[in-house]
Amino acid sequence: MPELPEVQTVASELNRKLKNRKIKSVAVNAPKMVAVGPAALPPKRQAKSYQVLKFIKLLKGQKILGVKRRAKLIIINLSPTSLKLRRTGRSLHLLVHLKMTGQFIFEDKKLRAKTHGLYRMFNKLSAPKVLLPGKHTHVIFTFSDASHLYFNDIRKFGYLKLVRDDELDQVKELKEYGPEPLDKKFTTGVFCSAAQKTPHGKIKEVLMDPKTVAGIGNIYSDEILFLSGVRPERTVSRIQNLEFRKIYSNIKLVLKKAIKAKGSSVGDFVRTDGSWGGFGKFHFVYGRKGQKCKKCGTIITSVKLNGRTGSFCPKCQR
Ligand SMILES: [Zn+2]
């Protein structure tokens, strides 16, 4: 599943590529993946066609002001281009969650000429190249200059939700997210007190809880804990202050490095031009079970925590 660095990569690239583009039309092939309004989604996914028609109608003619990220959510800020809509004074935001296998591919004439419209939709060299829109393309945005944005999702867990300005504070996901790890307001104190709210929790699970800190999942919690020398199954109450400070600074360090490398192409994550993120080769433990530790040569092992796998080096981490 894409985590903060992957979502940040997509949001930054979309911000650069989509800014000031005008939406000419939208095609929706999977009605359950789109919604209008702040209601939770899932589990109350609606397949009602009026929602889809409303979604398409509202997006048509909107200009993209910018794209940003909050936790693992991509937020596309829109501005109405027609005077009539502008008079209502309401602006819209398109919230997109990639979930497990969501992908955004932006294609203009230049990229189409370079790739002939063919993309590898899976993070494997052996995966066949697909001509977009493919069978996993569920939403297609066409812009006024004939460029396209494709939303692909093999597992269909992702969603696109259109909300008004005045509805943003009712969006459940946005309300529940904890602090942004790269924000200045996320201090050691903020982190420690959030983590210590669950003294009996395992540190890896606590790091992956979006209420403690937003955007960290399986990959980056493993990497952060390796660099901090702490095993994933350690209980919060038994972690020393010095270790907490190490974990805190490694949260920032690992996420910044991963953003710089454009994320990890684990699962089906690709960038907006279909290429892969480059952080995978820097992983110390994630996805390396059975291989030698890059620091000490000990074999990387793993532990099951609430259905998730935490990989660690038994010598470097205690
Ligand atoms: Zn080691």
Characterise the protein shown here:
It contains nine helices and 13 strands. The protein has 318 residues and is an alpha+beta fold. It has two domains: 4-176, N-terminal domain of MutM-like DNA repair proteins (Alpha-Beta Barrel); 188-312, Helicase, Ruva Protein, domain 3 (Orthogonal Bundle), CATH 1.10.8.50. The radius of gyration is 21 Å and the shape is globular. 39% of the residues are buried. The mean pLDDT is 93. The protein binds zinc ion.
Topology, element by element:
Blueprint lengths: L3 H15 L4 E6 L5 E3 L12 H11 L2 E9 L2 E8 L2 H5 L4 E6 L4 E6 L1 H7 L2 E3 L8 E3 L5 E7 L4 E6 L5 E6 L7 H5 L11 H8 L7 H6 L9 H11 L12 H20 L40 E5 L2 E5 L6
Parallel strand pairs: 2-11
Antiparallel strand pairs: 1-9, 3-4, 4-5, 5-11, 6-10, 7-8, 9-10, 12-13
Helix pairs in contact: 1-9, 8-9
Bound molecules: zinc ion (ZN).
